[in-house]
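Need a sequence for this fold. Nothing fancy.
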């Protein structure tokens, strides 16, 4: 075994007389491979499986030959035949054409590549990728004329914008500016978009041919016309045209273009050009020009809305339109414009108001008439304040009043504005007649209040009393009217009459008229009136009468705290009297003792009332209200009592316990209940175990 593993011995180690190199070995291998094999056996193929196997074997041999020698041109014929057979199967496969042409170009078969490109664009004329490569190859070969012919063939198929741009760029590379201009004209004919027109004009501007540039813009505007479907896109052409003139310092031309565009473009489609014009005027114009343009634009906008029917029933449009015209008129006034211009502006405002007020609401529903009435009010104020035509303003008010269906509803604001207008004209009789007519047609609380306010301003107190009486006859349930009537008498220092009015008011709740709308307001005003007069006995009597009607917790708290408030009020009155008499501000010991005694008595009375209120609420089983009263009582004791008093109130505070109750069908729920100390005493046997538990827990928490 060891002898078999040993290498064979070399007997002759001398060099051979003829040396064989690696190059010779490779050459001999190639020559032997290229020689046809002699005497090869013929293969007999019996079925499709053997045929597929034979094809695969031959294909592998061909691929191995190409892989070994990539520069061997002898294999091109075979590759070309493969591409041709593939094109016979699918001549519309674009990557196949591209790979075929790239292979021919790599092999420097230029003419064959040209023929392939020509065949490709003939079969697929809509594939721009093939055209791009075709013209690129011809231009690289320096065939400018041939490249132009290819472009012409391509453009005859009306390709996309990028193809036209490529043709134009080709002409510009060879300084053929006129040819490029002609191509631009054909391009905008094929793709007449605003962007293409603007690019053509920019090209002519860059060449320095301004007349041709203007002609291009005019051609574009003539082409688009004034069709509403394309106006939104046309504004870019107008903007580009105006900006071109601005760059050439032709500011008047640019301004005319902007104005021309704004007059013809609809409002919803001109935001862009309007913004451009505003920037233009800020840079090269004056503020008046901007304002005029804005006014005209908004005027067209409102007219457009009204014509489309959007503003007929929408009074917001009319408000905006009238405000615009009023502002224009006021601007002319400030600028001291000629009278003819002012007259035209006034007539314009009146025409708009007349058109607006002619839009009467279609139904007698007050919600539809509210904004309509404001149009009349604004119209009248314009005539009165701006034009100073009082007669016309009066006519406006009278017309508005005659239109409103007062039997169904009325507007107190309109009547009061009409009456105040007559007051400003110093015609008080007419103003009273207007308000009297309004109350007779459709009485309202606001009408009575406005009429009374007018009479009070004129110091006609007897007329005001009569109006209050008529108002209460019409609506005796209005607590605010009773209060204002009593305050009038109080201000006139007729206390007995004021007290009588309060008494009549609080008796309305017991009448058959349905009572007062807010009786608490009247009771509070009556109590405050007696308190202000320092009639404490009457105050107590009023509280007692009120508690007979309602045992509300707020009444009890107010009644109790009023005692201490009365004591403090008496002290303030004494200090004020002393200051008026010039006495010393310091009090003597007797006065201090008297005040302390008075406060102690008031505090004791307050506690008694709190106690009464607490017992009353507990009798009614009003637990939450009882807690509210105890909280107020505790705050009072913390301010005016001592610790023992506070502790006494705290002992009355309930505890919150969690309980369970049955809902039926065996279901239960937990709820929280307030348990007062007196309730615990009544149910002491049942709570004995719970108290013992609390005592044990308190003992456990004490430190050892």
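Here you go.
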């Amino acid at each position: 075994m060891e002898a078999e593993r040993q290498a064979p011995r070399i007997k002759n180690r001398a060099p051979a007389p003829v040396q064989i190199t690696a190059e010779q070995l490779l050459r001999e291998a190639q020559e032997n491979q290229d020689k046809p094999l002699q005497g090869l056996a013929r293969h007999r193929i019996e079925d499709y499986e053997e045929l597929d196997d034979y094809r695969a074997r031959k294909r592998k041999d061909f691929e191995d030959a190409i892989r070994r020698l990539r520069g061997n041109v002898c294999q091109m014929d075979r590759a070309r035949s493969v591409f041709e057979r593939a094109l016979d199967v699918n001549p519309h496969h674009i990557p196949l054409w591209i790979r075929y042409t790239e292979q021919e170009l790599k092999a420097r078969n230029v003419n064959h590549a040209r023929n392939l490109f020509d065949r490709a664009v003939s079969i697929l004329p809509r594939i721009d990728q093939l055209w791009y490569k075709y013209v690129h190859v011809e231009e690289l070969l320096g065939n400018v004329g041939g490249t132009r012919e290819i472009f012409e063939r391509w453009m005859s198929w009306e390709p996309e914008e990028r193809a036209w741009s490529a043709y134009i760029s080709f002409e510009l590379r060879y300084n053929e500016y006129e040819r490029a201009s002609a191509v631009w004209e054909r391009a905008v004919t094929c793709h007449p978009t605003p962007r293409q027109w603007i690019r053509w004009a920019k090209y002519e501007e860059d060449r320095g041919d301004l007349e041709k540039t203007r002609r291009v813009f005019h051609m574009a505007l003539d082409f688009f016309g004034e069709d509403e479907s394309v106006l939104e896109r046309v504004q870019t052409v107008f903007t580009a045209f105006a900006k071109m003139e601005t760059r050439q310092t032709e500011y008047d031309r640019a301004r005319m273009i902007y104005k021309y565009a704004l007059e013809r473009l609809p409002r919803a489609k001109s935001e862009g050009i309007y913004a451009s014009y505003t920037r233009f005027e800020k840079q090269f114009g004056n503020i008046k020009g901007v304002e005029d343009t804005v006014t005209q634009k908004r005027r067209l906008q409102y007219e457009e809305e009204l014509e489309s029917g959007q503003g007929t029933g929408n009074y917001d449009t009319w408000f905006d339109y009238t405000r615009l015209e009023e502002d224009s008129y006021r601007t002319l006034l400030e600028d001291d414009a000629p009278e003819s211009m002012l007259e035209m502006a006034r007539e314009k405002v009146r025409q708009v108001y007349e058109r607006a007020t002619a839009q009467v609401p279609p139904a007698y529903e007050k919600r539809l008439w509210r904004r309509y009435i404001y149009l009349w009010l604004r119209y009248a104020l314009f005539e009165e304040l701006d034009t100073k035509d009082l007669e016309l303003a009066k006519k406006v008010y009278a017309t508005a009043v005659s239109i409103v269906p007062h039997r169904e509803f009325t507007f107190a604001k309109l009547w009061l504005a009409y009456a105040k207008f007559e007051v400003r004209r110093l015609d008080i009789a007419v103003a009273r007649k207007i308000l009297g007519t309004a109350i007779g047609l459709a009485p309202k609380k606001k009408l009575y209040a406005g009429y009374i306010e007018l009479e009070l301003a004129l110091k006609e107190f007897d007329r005001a009393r009569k109006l209050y009486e008529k108002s209460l006859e019409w609506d005796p349930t209005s607590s605010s009217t009773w209060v204002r009537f009593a305050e009038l008498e109080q201000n006139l220092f007729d206390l007995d009459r004021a007290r009588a009015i309060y008494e009549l008011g609080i008796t309305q709740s017991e009448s058959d008229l349905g009572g007062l709308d807010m009786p608490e307001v009247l009771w509070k005003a009556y109590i405050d009136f007696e308190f202000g007069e320092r009639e404490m006995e009457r105050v107590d009597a009023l509280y007692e009468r009120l508690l007979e009607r309602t045992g509300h917790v707020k009444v009890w708290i107010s009644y109790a705290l009023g005692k201490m408030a009365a004591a403090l009020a008496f002290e303030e009155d004494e200090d004020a009297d002393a200051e008026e008499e010039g006495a010393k501000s310091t009090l003597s010991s007797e006065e201090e003792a008297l005040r302390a005694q008075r406060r102690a008595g008031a505090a004791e009375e307050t506690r008694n009332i709190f106690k009464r209120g607490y017992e009353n609420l507990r009798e009614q089983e009003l637990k939450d209200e009882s807690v509210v009263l105890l909280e107020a009582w505790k705050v009072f004791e913390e301010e005016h009592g001592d610790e023992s008093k506070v502790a006494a109130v705290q002992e009355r505070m309930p505890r919150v316990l969690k309980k369970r109750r049955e809902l039926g069908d065996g279901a239960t729920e937990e709820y929280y209940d307030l348990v007062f100390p007196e309730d615990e005493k009544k149910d002491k046997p049942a709570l004995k175990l719970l108290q013992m538990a609390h005592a044990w827990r308190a003992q456990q928490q004490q430190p050892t």
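For context: The chain has a mean pLDDT of 83.
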